[in-house]
Amino acid sequence: MLCGWVAKRRDHGGLVFCDLRDRYGLTQIVFDPALAGGAAAHETAGRLRSEFVIWCKGKVRHRPEGMTNTKLATGEIEVACTELVILSEAKTPPFAIDDEAEVAESVRLKYRYLDLRRPSLQRNLLIRHRMLSIVRNHLDQNHFVEVETPILYKSTPEGARDFIVPSRINPGSFYALPQSPQTLKQLLMISGMDRYYQIARCFRDEDLRADRQPEFSQIDIEQSFLDEEAFFPILESMMAKLWKEILGVELKTPFPRMPYSEAMSRFGSDKPDVRFGLELNDLSDVFAKSGFQVFSNALAANSRGRRGSVRAIVVPGEAEKFSRKDLDDLTAHAATFGAKGLLWIKIQPGGPEGGVVMQSPAAKFFTEEEKSALTARLKLAPGHLVLIIADPKDKVVYDALGAIRLSVGARLGLIPKHGEGAPAFLWVMNFPLLEFDDKENRYYACHHPFTSPRPEFFEDFIHGRDLDRIEASAYDLVLNGVEVGGGSLRIYRPDVQAAMFKLLGLTPEEAKAKFGFFLEALQYGTPPHGGLAFGVDRLAALLCGVGPIRDVMAFPKTQKGTDLMAETPSAVTPEQLAELGIALARPQANRENAGS
Question: Which of 231, 439, 490, 581 could pair with 171 as two cysteines, CB 3.0-4.6 Å apart?
């Protein structure tokens, strides 16, 4: 007996064939009037159409010789149906329920319940389920306790804008949906729950960039008395189980570690894809005395005594593959990261004594000594393409050149596809604790305001000394150039937490108003603690080998934060607003549909 949906129906005259689809796959059903008791089923089968829901009963038998389908798990058998019941009829769907069908994403999201019938999306959701099952079992075996934390909570500044929820019972007061369970999991550590985890829902009301969702899930993990040397193996063995049990891939542990400073200087990214070369080269010393204004401006000290840099990547033997338009496109790409330009040099043969010629709009600004030093530093040879970015801000240079590296790597086929090569896991360590904003003339926390400085920097931090060089006890787990998890040791000393709030511009009164409950808790004996959160959606996407995280989420939003299927966000009735004591500054866009 089988139940499911009609994927396809084929009438071959005397015989009717139907492919029945359920979440386990496809099974071919045969309706043959010559079978004992099969005449009624055959007659009913004449009414079948795509997406009808049916129940059928019959005998499993081998398909005739030469009729097997090696592409199906059930391709060697079929069910000869003797009883058929149509449980539910269906309108013609707006698109074919098929992985090969080309369908606009807006249509897919509007009819998401139909889209989810496609085998690929069902597979993704099943892999996601299996992933979380493995995670729960692994953490349970390592004595972590699953604790649920509130969804209705206090609005606390953690880096993004909160979604706020009005309270009817307390007029004029609001809850917030948590950006993460950050303070709550720390309070659990203070409570003595020394190993916690949660598959946590998180909410951020921010402008949606590519592949971001306003609500998402994370595997939230926290541990008291945390020692990185003992904590990392727990996480690494969890990743090893996922890759082994889901993909059949053996991971080599322990994972390599790389300081943040090295990741930036070599790859221009704090989540470097280390599977291919095209590493960054620092040319600041080569052009330290350059008369070329682009370089001299970049290397001049600013008001805080900081200098920018001149850095390059070398594409060996591929210069002729890049037309002027290609280079202009790369320049435009770099501009999206704040770069004022991209300087390119194509290396041609023809110099004296087997030397080279530099073909570039900027070559005329280089001295012979600079050309010679550049050639030696980068080991230049004919066919090489050099891409240079200079800027007074190192961050601009890193961001732009790191993005150019990925773009060029993808264009040249240097980046392995899903399933090719060994997964490149990497710990990135020792991030900066603070970032200075020149416009606002103040520091911001690079992660969140509860991230601890490394212990050797405590005294300098508390006394406000050498803040730019202070490192955080923070770490990210990166896979193939994608951040899959991030965490840190947390501040557990009240004096260090007070110093952090002061640096971030919070007065004692403001800190008490926003975090008074947490600051009070720190006074009652707080253990050293820390943790890490994995992005469930990104991790599932990597295991499934898909790009957008929407493909591993059941009901995602669009890039504008809307649900096309439920047509939300939507208006509410005037009565609901009146109950909450809320008056709108401008009319609701679709008030006429409120409550419908």
Answer: 581
> What CATH number does the domain containing 350 carry?
3.30.1360.30
Report how far residue 154's alpha carbon sits from residue 215's, in angstroms, rounded to the nearest whole number: 17
Q: Please tell me the distance from the alpha carbon of residue 368 to that of residue 358, in angstroms, as a whole number.
A: 11
**Domain CATH number, residue 52:** 2.40.50.140
Q: What region, left, alpha or beta, does residue 441 occupy, with left being phi > 0 and alpha being psi -120 to 50 degrees?
A: left
Number of domains present in the structure of the chain = 3
Which of 405, 437, 398, 389 has the alpha carbon at shortest distance from 276? 405
177 and 247 both lie in a single domain = yes
What is the C-alpha separation between 158 and 184, in angstroms, rounded?
13
Range 537-574 burial, b when 16+ CB lie within 10 A, else e: bbbbbbbbebeebbbbbeebbeeebebbeeeeebbbee
Peptide bond into 254 cis (omega under 30): yes
Place of tokens 């496109």: 329
Whether the per-residue pLDDT at 89 is higher than 90: the answer is yes
Residue 581 lies in a domain: no
User: With the C-alpha atoms ordered 232, 236, 237, 242, is the resulting torsion angle positive or negative?
Assistant: positive
Residues 549 and 211: beta-carbon distance below 8 Å: yes
pLDDT of residue 594: 44
Give the contacts of 168 (CB within 8 A, at least 6 positions apart): 579, 580
Task: Return the ∠ at Cα 368 (arms to 364 and 371), rounded to 5°.
Answer: 80
| Residue 470, domain extent | 130-254+424-535
> In this structure, how many other beta carbons lie within 10 angstroms of the beta carbon of residue 278?
20
**Does position 354 have pLDDT exceeding 80, yes or no?**
no
Per-residue pLDDT tens for 422-469? 999 999 999 999 998 888 888 888 888 999 999 999 999 999 899 999
Banded model confidence at residue 257, pLDDT cuts 50, 70, 90: very high
Provide the percentage of residues in the chain whose pLDDT is more than 90. Answer: 79
Bond into 171 cis (ω within 30): no
Pair 443, 436: CB distance under 8 Å: yes
DSSP 69-108: -TTSTTTTEEEEEEEEEEEE--PPPSS-SSTT----HHHH
What pLDDT is recorded for position 207?
77
Q: Which stretch of DSSP H or E encloses residue 7?
A: strand 2-12
Same domain, 231 and 284: no
> What does the H/E/C string look like for 113-168?
HHHCCCHHHHHHHHHHHHHHHHHHHHHHHCCCEECCCCCCECCCCCCCCCEEEECC
Q: Is residue 271 part of a domain?
A: no
- Residue (of 479, 525, 522, 480) closest to 500 by Cα position: 522
Residue 499 lies in a domain: yes
- The answer to the question of residue 549 being in a domain is no
Indicate whether 456 and 497 sit together in one domain.
yes
C-alpha 584: how far from chain center: 35
Short-list 468, 472, 475, CA closest to 271? 475
Q: Choose among 444, 535, 432: nearest CA to 488.
A: 432
pLDDT in tens, 295-353: 999 999 776 778 899 999 999 988 889 999 999 999 999 999 999 999 999 998 876 66
Same domain, 509 and 428: yes
